[in-house]
C-alpha cells in the first residue's frame, strides 16, 4: 500500500513539474517574440520590457555606476608547487591547526 502512495505522489509531482516546464517555455517564447517585435518596430521606451532590459545588472557597474567593459574572470597559470604552497599556507593559518598535532602524525 505504501508503494502505491509513493508511486502516486511521484506521478503527481512529475506531472506538475512537466506542466510547469511547458508553461515556462511558452511564457519565455512569448516574451522573446514580443521583445524581438519591439526591437524591429523601434521599441517604444514606455513598455515595461524595454525598461527592464535597458538596466544592467548591478554587478556589471563600477562605483560610479558606469558599465564595466573588461573581463571579470582572470585566471593565471600556476604550477602544482605554487598551488600546494598556497593550500599549505591556508591550512597552517586555520584556527584548528596546531604544530604539535601535525608533528606527531
UniProtKB/TrEMBL annotation:
The keyword Transmembrane helix applies. Residues 35-64 are annotated as: Disordered. Pfam families: DUF2973 (PF11189). InterPro entries: Phage_Syn9_Gp224. The chain crosses the membrane at residues 6-26. Keywords: Membrane, Transmembrane, Transmembrane helix. The keyword Transmembrane helix applies. Residues 35-53 have a biased composition (Low complexity). This is DUF2973 domain-containing protein. It comes from Thermocoleostomius sinensis A174.
